[in-house]
Write a structure and sequence with these properties.
Blueprint lengths: L16 E5 L2 H4 L12 H7 L16 H14 L4 E5 L2 H4 L9 H16 L3 E7 L5 H5 L6 H18 L5 E6 L1 H9 L11 H25 L4 E7 L3 E3 L4 H24 L4 H7 L10 H5 L5 E5 L4 E4 L10 E2 L16 H14 L5 E5 L17 H19 L4 E7 L18 E4 L4 E4 L1 H11 L1
Parallel strand pairs: 1-2, 1-11, 2-3, 3-4, 4-5, 5-7, 6-8, 7-10, 10-11
Antiparallel strand pairs: 8-9, 12-13
Helix pairs in contact: 3-5, 7-9, 8-9, 13-14, 14-15
The structure holds beta-D-fucopyranose.
């Protein structure tokens, strides 16, 4: 797929939305303001050695104060949709029980501001900032967290459900489970397979319970979940490499897609995990697999897998494809993978509707002397991936929105502020925002 121009605007049906995404802890700052409680990310970021540049999200992009300016910026870039996350510890500082009305007030102002500017809100209820009280009571390893999540989801829905139609409960349960509990690179910083599988199951269960509760509260809302998906290609035709790629697909993709759409864990991976599984009650999978109104996909890159027996399951050994462009995350620019995942998920799981909830690239951006931020590699990345969307649409995939990660540079979790994913450059010392060249090109494409 050549990737040096935007697709035809007419390749996208009327009503298709183009926008951008962010998440609360990565942009808001104001971690102690207006009654917000602490989350496990506050603790993790403040633990020496956990974040590459020693930074935290305490201040981030000061979006909690600057939200109006940020909404104006979105409007000036012609964005039609904006995906944000609600910080659970702002709404329920202890995770459950006592409601903090000021927290909900903030999101209400934000949503009203979006609607005034004609921007469609997509709300995510959990983008990794678990209230510390729940973390200390077992976090996602505890079944109780799943029910606490459902209670929280309803509280948010009650306040915003008349204005927000599109909801995702979780962002990337795979990342929450594996990166937080097996790789130790995200909160809570564990390296334990049993904890990982327990967290993964309770995240999915929490999604299912919240789904039931929200459906009861607002039958017309569009409810879904956001999964990160990654195609795994094998380094060559050899059977062992092929098997390794399929296993990686099972661990990363099918472990979440199968329970959500088929009410079962994939048997090949389950066999390998059997000794480490948490208690799965008879009704759990039915709770998890309720019909979704839409499925959000986060797509960045592929895994090019090598068979390597020294690498302990479930980790896969990946090989760098040197000929391709790689972002500063060391992620390969491979739009073909987005096309493959969209068509495959449509074919094998048939969600009613799909949207790209995150897609983008971190590049070494800087503001030049003339005030411009030149980021041709990001522009090429976006063009290639939009073309992949157009191709999937042409083949009948019910795709209805494309959201760039991210609206602006922000706190990139364990990598701190070292990665710039934004359409808009942020100078953290002055909080000055500068739309990058790719943002201007994206804005022109949306308008065209
Ligand atoms: C995704 C996360 C998002 C951001 C991007 C780069 O996994 O959902 O918050 O960190 O990666």
């Amino acid at each position: 797929m050549t990737a040096d121009r935007f697709p035809e605007r007419s390749a996208f049906p009327p009503g298709f939305l183009f926008g951008a995404a962010t998440s609360a802890y990565q942009i808001e700052g104001a971690v102690e303001q207006d009654g917000r409680g602490p989350s496990w990310w506050d603790r993790f970021a403040h633990t020496p050695g956990c974040i590459r540049d020693g930074s935290t999200g305490d201040q981030a992009c000061e979006h909690y104060q600057r939200w109006r300016e940020d909404l104006d910026l979105m409007h000036s870039l012609n964005l039609q949709a904006y995906r944000f996350s609600v910080a659970w510890p702002r709404v329920l500082p202890d995770g459950r029980g006592r409601l903090n009305p000021a927290g909900l007030d903030f999101y209400e102002r934000l949503v009203d501001g979006l609607l005034e500017r004609g921007i469609v809100p997509y709300a995510t209820l959990y983008h990794w900032d678990l209230p510390l009280t729940l973390a200390d009571a077992g976090g996602w390893q505890s079944r109780d967290t799943s029910s606490a999540f459902a209670d929280y989801a309803v509280q948010v829905m009650r306040r915003l459900g008349d204005r927000v139609a599109r909801w995702s409960r979780l962002n990337e349960p795979r990342c929450s489970a594996y990166v937080g509990h097996l790789e130790g690179r995200h909160a809570p910083g564990l390296r334990d397979l049993r904890a990982t599988l327990s967290a993964a199951h309770h995240l999915l269960l929490g999604h299912g319970l919240a789904m039931q509760a929200m459906r009861a509260e607002s039958p017309s809302a569009q409810l879904g979940i956001v999964l990160d998906v990654k195609p795994y290609t094998a380094a060559d035709e050899g059977a062992l490499h092929q098997q390794a790629a399929w296993r990686a697909d099972g661990v990363f993709n099918r472990w979440f897609l199968d329970p959500l759409f088929r009410a079962e864990y994939p048997t090949d991976v389950l066999a390998a995990y059997a000794a480490h599984m948490p208690d799965v009650l008879a009704t759990d999978l039915a709770t998890i697999a309720q019909p979704l109104d839409h499925l959000g996909l986060n797509y960045y890159t592929r895994g090019h897998v090598l068979h390597d027996p020294s690498r302990p399951f479930p980790q896969a050994a990946e090989q760098r494809v040197n000929a391709a462009h790689h972002s500063t995350m060391e992620w390969e620019d491979w739009p073909e993978g987005l096309y493959r995942m969209l068509t495959r998920i449509h074919r094998e799981y048939a969600p009613k509707a799909l949207f790209v909830a995150e897609n983008g690239a971190a590049e070494p951006d800087r503001v030049d002397a003339d005030g411009r931020v030149r980021d041709p590699d990001r522009q090429r990345y976006l063009q290639g991936h939009l073309r992949a969307c157009a191709k999937a649409l042409e083949e009948g995939v019910p795709l209805d929105a494309y959201l760039v990660w991210s609206l602006m540079d922000n706190f990139e979790w364990g990598r701190g502020y070292t990665q710039r994913f934004g359409l808009v450059h942020v100078d953290y010392a002055t909080q000055r925002r500068t739309p990058k060249e790719s943002a201007l090109a994206y804005a022109a494409f949306i308008r065209s």
